[in-house]
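Quick one: structure tokens for this chain, please?
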Amino acid sequence: MNNASFRIGSCDEHPAIQYAAEELARCLSAGGLNAMVGETGDFRLGLMGSFAEVEVGSEDMDEIAVETDSKGGMLAGSNPRSVLFAVYAYLRELGFAWVRPDADGEVVPELSNVLPSVSLRQRASYRHRGVCIEGAISGENARAMVDWMPKVGMNAYFIQFRNAFTFFDRWYTHQGNPTLPG
């Protein structure tokens, strides 16, 4: 059993940054460490402009900066959603993986009391990185996809037509599936 304990604080008030702190705490805890979100922390999350040691990137492009050691560190982004991308990039460096949507697609490593040093500075190659729904989809499928996408670096979810009724209708009427009633 690991006894390392980490506090996670955010420098900026924004729902996406608060969610990023919660996700970092959730994943570190799942890996066997004690982690909790607080006002100050061993890990500090925020916008690049909140940290003197980070050159500010373009708010329009997703850019991250991660500087951590065994005691914690800084995870920053050029905009609030990029802070979430920074958290997931850091977690991938620790061995976490998200191979498909939903909890059964999450790979959680057993973490040691001594976290490795990680130094990352990345800028997305493309402004929009996402998926387009086609075929048939349920509300549960859509929510699982939206939850999974930032874990693998995607930031856009769109539909093929002007509205998604066709795709949800196909799912819930089980069009083409004689084994389930609509």
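The first strand starts at residue 5 and ends at 10.
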